[in-house]
Amino acid sequence: MENIESTLMLANLTSRVFRQLMREKTIAAGLSETYRPFFMILSRGDDINQLDFAKRLHFSAPSISLTLQKMEQEGLITKEVDSNDKRVTNIRLTPKGREYDNKFKSVLFEVENEIYEGIDLSERQEANALLLKLIKKITEIGDMPHEDI
Fold first, then answer.
1. What are the distances in angstroms from CA 71 to CA 28, 30, 89, 132?
2. Percent residues over pLDDT 70 in the chain
């Protein structure tokens, strides 16, 4: 049991220190740390609505609404009423938003390259396989969605 707890604690610690490093690098690049999780979702495709953000990010609806409002004011996104369901508003990146997203990706790739230096591909694949198994098991036990995995 001790190894399992240690593995999960290390996974948690890894996540926390990685988030902190990304926060520092993001701010140093002149990007808004608040927007990073939104861009991670928007870069996967258009036509994401506010409910999708709430489900994937586990943020409150008012928090999501406020952040999207700021992003729209900065010209990073547009909001369009869904043609099939007028109650739904879809969010899309603007060309300026895509440039911003590319800057986020550049920071991420730079950080990943630094982190992975000295770690060979087979070690990364082994770690990925273990982490995916842990995520799957945790989400099953907690009866949580994991569609973004």
1. 19, 15, 15, 32
2. 91
Q: Where are the domains of the chain?
A: 2-117
Residue ranges in 74-147 assigned as alpha helix (H)? 95-116, 121-141
Q: What b-and-e string marks burial along 17-51, b requiring 16 or more CB atoms within 10 Å of the CB? A: eeeeebeebbeeeebbeebbebbbebeeeeebbbe
Task: List Cβ neighbours of 124 (8 Å cut-off, separation of 6 or more).
Answer: 116
For the domain 2-117, what is the CATH code?
A: 1.10.10.10
Length of the chain (residues): 149
pTM, to two decimals:
0.75
